[in-house]
Amino acid sequence: GLRNEDFQEGLERLGLRRxxxxxxxxxxxxxxxxxxxxxxxxxxxxxxxxxxxMELDTRDWDVPxxxxxxxxxxxxxxxxxxxxxxxxxxxxxxxxSPQGLQAAAWASxxxxxxxxxxxxxxxxxxxPQMCERFASGRFKVKWQPHAALRRVWTTAGVAGEGALSIxxxxxxxxxxxxxxARRGSNAAKERIPLGHFACSSYEAPAGMQxxxxxxxxxxxxFVKHCTEALRHLLGVFFPHPVRFRKVWxxxxxxxxxxxxxxxxxxxxxxxxxxxATCGDEQPILGEVRCVPRPWVExxx
Length: 300
Fold this sequence. Notes:
There is one protein chain. By secondary structure, the protein is of the alpha+beta class. It has two domains: 1-54; 59-298, no CATH class. 21% of the residues lie in helices and 24% in strands. The strands form six sheets. A four-stranded antiparallel β-sheet has the order 2-5-10-8. Helix 1 packs across helix 2 (23-37).
């Protein structure tokens, strides 16, 4: 079990203490949280108490050992950090996407690294080599402007509330400039939904961007636009979450709202954004995707 001083040290190592803040206030906050978790007043937090308080299940708790974790091996050679999700996509978390992903890299590594089972599905375990940055490659990853949005929630009509609205991205397969018999894009590409967007207006937010992945081999006017390899790559590097955890809610009319945190399928992935709903049902898993942990860094 964890004693209070061990608990405080762990929170500080996770970066939860505000730099320059009052030491006395921080110590008191940690002590209050420790007492809340230590329901039996033993002076020790047991694993099951921590799991229950944090709403963790076996998937959240499944962290590979140092010898088998590609993420830990990669983190030793990278200075990038990841911050807990406390806002919508793009508000606190920045993504550093590789300029290109070589087909041989992810194809061969995906077969040798192994897979983690999540329910009936399986998730490819990533190695550091699979997440390396290349100047060129078959698959191009790039931020693109995105204007297709659906309004999920708004404070319009609520007395005493300022303007606020939440929007979900639509049309993940972008349309191309050519609208002939094929009607659509002249490239095999798809955009990555990382979460919903919030803005202090009733109008759709401007200047939104999404990651777009393009299969250069199947792009162009005179090639077959096969998306099988692209879909496989998205499943390997940008899997959907396995479930959602409700982290905040506002009940009652006229504007009920729930905020959900996506739970990644394996420790190698993170979910930078949140998802909003008006009802109490969990969002559909396809509403958002996760990203490799080595590609995420803290945005100051």
